Amino acid sequence: MVLQQEDSVPIWGWGRASTTVKIVGSWSPEDTTSVVVDDNGRWKGKIKTTRYGGPYTLRVFSKNSNDEVLLRDVMLGEVWVCSGQSNMEWASGNGITNQQEEIGAADYPNIRFFSLAKQASGTLQDDCRAVWEICTPTVMQKRSAVAYFFGRHLHQQLNVPIGLIVSAWGGTPAEVWIPKELVPDTPEQQKLTASRKNPWWPVEAGVLYNSMVSPLFPYRIAGVIWYQGESNRDAAQPYAMLMKQLIQTWRKGFDKEFPFYQVQIAPYNYKSTDNGPALIREAQELVARTVPRTEVVVTNDIGEYGNIHPARKQEVGIRLGDIALKENYGMSDKEVRSPFLTHAEIEKDRVILTFSHAEEGLICTGKVVKGLQIAGEDGVFVEAKANIKESRLIAYAPGIKRPVTVRYCFDDATVGNIFSKQGLPVAPFQKDHLTK
Q: Where is the Sialate O-acetylesterase domain (predicted)?
């Protein structure tokens, strides 16, 4: 297993009431924590961990009952929870770019997976089904590709053991990962839940929070990466609120305001009628702007029109890792965030668009910008042209003298081609009510 380094790490379990339980890690054998089992047969103590290293042992014992548990091959390092739906669950063996080469090279004894079995529950659980596994090619090809590439990037840059707790289930909406009482029980929500009924995945609010999140509390972690949103596209309006509730509740459960890094859902032909996928991406950006210690990774350059599970999982993991390396570990001076629209202003028939995180300028990888559209007062969108001037985009459309709305890749499946000079894709956007 991997325990969070240089921290006060909870260790908990069950035993006979009134028994004294002692906890000692071989990294500090002189430090022993003692706790008493309560009347319900539960106990929890905290043990201090030192700087990364291992392998160590963790000994839990009780002298007055002769009970003992000895955990071997315990590493101290960085622990991350990796959660969401199918793009987080997606295993390398199911298909990724350079699949055979990546699987063959996945021999990292100090990267460890703890992948929860998929199980739903109507009531809170205090245990889960999973085992710690050392990363080998055999293990890696069956486990989360995004988690692996994220963990590998951290491991290579930090040179510390990495623990990856994977709790993901394809097809699941955000509501199942949040306590049921925090999801509004409205007729609209009830109708939506009924419409999602499918034998392949749970849809009732709270059922995975109960069985695949709550049992992890209060394991000590460094942070969370999250790849989900596709299953909320048919009711996108409350998504930002749901994610804020999720982050707040998980932070309370883990007793830490940990960093929470989302992945924006990628382009795909959802055949939506209400632009739901674009609204989900907009909500994900809103969460990153308004919730402390959150970020969002943009993926509108790696989507596939006919594949909801794009193969380029390496970029996703590396982009998540780059943000963690800079924000968590202070390891990078480079720009790790995608450009986001910050300001739109009309000059005659032009729209001047200004972006954050593009101090060195923007580039277009094609002859023309893809997915950029402008609408006038009639609300009819037409393809727009654009000139790039450093971190600004000057957009215009023949025939539209008074722009009212501008948007970029604000649909199901358009793959964008504007990037920062660091190679990070410009985030999709829609800006209404443009003024001079």
A: 78-313
